[in-house]
Design brief:
By secondary structure, the chain is of the alpha/beta class. It is built from seven helices and five strands, in the order αβαββαβαβααα. The strands form two sheets. It has a three-stranded parallel β-sheet with strand order 2-1-3. The protein has a two-stranded parallel sheet with strand order 4-5. Helix 1 packs across helix 7. It starts with 8 loop residues before the first helix and ends with a helix.
Length: about 190
């Protein structure tokens, strides 16, 4: 979840869901009107990608061990419902000034629903060899009660191509990052 588009929500959702699906029963609910993940359902046939006709109340009836929800890149009436429904809210963000400004609104919405304790901000699509990432991390840590993932997801072509490779990154570094983030997410449930 993030109010800003272009932060890699759909790609990260796909990669995490495919990684979890190696061990448990996983479904993806595509609530993003762009329907990027829904369009992939013809390519990735061994993972259920559902739209639920835009009715999030149907999520509670789904029979999966984990359900990943791809949210729209703007405020909708469904976001508060989804925040309250979620066991964990993963908030991907790029390391940019505009992204930092937008995440403050996202975190305010999560805070208004008293759900900060079940949110995890993930620095996504990180550019190598830049001090901007450190600057953004410093600013993110100033946001009250924000939980920042230790794992950063790099801006690797392997993630962009993962739609062609059925959600499995080809690059070893990309695979390691998804594994590391998956482990970090699982620890949140212990």
């Amino acid at each position: 979840m993030h109010q800003k588009g272009g932060v890699g929500k759909s790609t990260l959702t796909l990669n995490l869901a495919v990684n979890f699906a190696k061990a448990v029963n996983v479904g993806i609910v595509d609530m993003d009107p762009q329907g990027s993940l829904t369009q992939l359902s013809t390519v990735i046939q061994d993972l259920d990608i559902l739209t639920l006709e835009g009715k999030p109340e149907k999520i509670q009836k789904l029979q999966y061990d984990y359900i990943f929800i791809d949210t729209p890149p703007y405020l909708t009436n469904n976001l508060k419902y989804l925040i309250n429904l979620a066991d964990l809210i993963v908030v991907p963000t790029k390391a940019g000034i505009m992204d930092l400004m937008a995440i403050q609104g996202t975190m305010s919405l999560i805070k208004s629903q008293k759900a900060l304790d079940k949110s995890l901000v993930v620095l996504n699509m990180i550019k190598p060899n830049t001090t901007l990432t450190l600057d953004i991390q410093t600013e993110l840590r100033k946001i009250d009660k924000l939980s920042l993932a230790k794992t950063h997801i790099s801006d690797l072509v392997s993630f962009t191509r993962s739609a062609f490779t059925k959600g499995i990154p080809e690059n070893v570094k990309a695979k390691q990052q998804i594994e590391s983030l998956s482990t970090e997410i699982l620890y949140r449930f212990l």
